[in-house]
Design a protein that fits this description.
With 250 residues, the chain is of the alpha/beta class. It has a single domain, classed as Vaccinia Virus protein VP39 (Rossmann fold). Helix content is 36%, strand content 21%. It has 9 helices and 7 strands. The longest helix is centred in the first third of the chain and has 24 residues. It is globular and about 65 Å long.
Amino acid sequence: MLINIEESDFFKLKYYWGKLVKKINQPFFFEGSRRPDFKSVVKQLDYDRYWSERGFKMRSKLMEREAIFLDWIGPSSRVLDLGCGSSRLLHELKERKNCHVSGLDVSSLVIGGLEQMGISVIKADIESADFRLADKYDYVVISEVLEHLKYPEDLIVKIKNNADYLVISIPNSAFYRYRLGLLLTGRFFTQWMMHPAEHLRYWSHKDFLDWLVAQELEVIKFKASNGFHFKDVWPNLFGHQICYLTKVKA
């Protein structure tokens, strides 16, 4: 009987200790870390299938990075969102800033869903060799898209003459959680849902600043949209997703 009580107390102590550690660490550890499930990897990426299984619905609120974009983009601007997906950004720009907005996506399900919300969407594959933009925009938004491309440099070349500003966000591969995960668990960070090939390019914040310069883009400002408390002081270490407002050099 005494042994059973001791075992029971041990497991209770372990349970409450785990909850306490999680609560203490909550401000420090960024949620979303996971072990990759390679057994569930689909054979081929298909974004219509992705949206069909997920169910297309415009997000009910802006994500942190989209709130930054909303602040940066001027009123009554012409805005194009490349790979817009279920983002609420275009809707908010249209309603709150009187912007003339358009989306661009490869998925027919995304296009149909956004058109029902009164948003014009162009169907196009930005990785196609003959992809070009027909119109000129004040801002082109490229949010969490470049890391999915084999040659993002080609995309910048194709679009930068059609925009005054490029508004960009990427996941920062130098984020402290990724560093600690590799150091302590020996596992590379997981930035995919259906297939490891979703992300093909990886940058730290410092690397990406150099990359933007190489694309002949002037960095006006940048800001970490989420991460740890010190993300504004040390974005390369504590910024998880980082936003960039860039101007196309004349």
